[in-house]
Request: fold
Amino acid sequence: MRIEPAVQLVGHIAVPGDKSISHRAVLIAALCDGETRISGWGRSADTEATVRAVRALGVRVDEHDVDTLRVLGVGIRGLAEPASPVDCANSGTLMRLIAGILAGQEGRFELIGDESLSARPMERVAEPLRRMGAHVETTTGRAPLVIEGGPLTAISYELPVASAQVKSALLLAGLYARGETTVVEPVPTRDHTELMLEAAGARVVRRAGSVSVWPAERLELGELEVPGDFSSAAPFVVAATLIPGSELHVHGVNLNPRRTGLLGILERMGARITVYNRRRIGGEPAGSRSTSCRSSRSPPRTRTVGASSAARASCARRRRTASRPSSTVCGRSAPMSRARGTASASAACRFAPAAA
Reply:
């Protein structure tokens, strides 16, 4: 591979669907009544493990495209006891979140993973689930996990260490628990689970420093769009702020404030960042952002625009080319118009470099 210095980064890109949200979309859709159509799903080894896991529990998942799924939910208590262990592969997110769901199901469930996952701590999720009444066995504090689900009782639990995964597991278990389940956080963590549960119809109350959930009898999502992964966009964003004369639009990107701390830092350093076409995608805040760079060599482009025809064309091309390996076009004024990922013509970002 040969990489040459770029004179400018100009154009429109879309990035793959957010992985954390993609996990939750499949898991919560499995608990819904009826069909959920998920678009913009971020395909990866970890999220594919989540699809295999819910299939092993009796849920039908049809893959219509590289980033489009159709999940036929079995209802909140409809998961089936599998004939063999559920393989979580290398995904700690999957193992911890699905443990919370299975704690409220009837049956015996064994969760296994690869060598790396089997070395990660699991008592941090097993211990509070036991407090709720679930029977959870770990292997010296790690995977494999054996869960015997049943009736649960709500608890108020203060996380000893901030963890979105543990918080999410307890909130999912709280859907089956009698009473109000509350998780207290030492510092705020990503809130994708509570946002999606709200979108599905669960009763969720968020307060400063805590979140509560109540039992649910029915969940329903219908159509769900996964916004683009901000972490995947970050390298392009930083590059656009460094190269004079750049103007980069990132479309359909997740703008959840618990995921976008980088933007605040770049703005404090002088980057020109504009948000436009704000909306919510899958319950998450999203929009269009732009970044530009001032330089004595190249004046910045400072206009703020809506989704252009070029952006819409890029989004359409993404669906036709999504199964191909993604590529980055980087060169002298080269447009970045073929990035693979979940794109939305009405949600984008434009980035430009800081003043010299």
